[in-house]
Amino acid sequence: MVSALCLLDLLAAFDTVDHELLILRLKRQFCLRAVVLQWFSYLSDSTFHVTHSSSSPSVICVPGAVPQGSVLGRACLLCTQRTLRTEFQSMVLVTMRLLTICMQLYVQCHYNDMSSAVQRLEHCITDVGQPS
Fold it and tell me: Could you tell me the residue ranges of all domains in the chain?
């Protein structure tokens, strides 16, 4: 028996979180409503200032991303992990483990079946990268 392992860093994924999709998932998966969802309003008003040399600063709106280390960042991480776990439960013969901000995908197989195992892992990785 051999194992094929893929490690995914979910921390970088927080730089691409769609705010509207995140709010929708918080409503559907965790049944959050009104006042609690307002806690996440800081996401929709996110901006950053860019200054180059002596030019005036430019204000840029951030349509996606969750600030790392934010108070509600952990809830966003849990929502993302739960979504991924649900999606991967339907995949046959691929095991998933979540470790704080990392995800392990692995397949155990016989040496003769390695190419098939690698294809299953590649399929999973492709699915993670697709918007749902």
Answer: 2-129
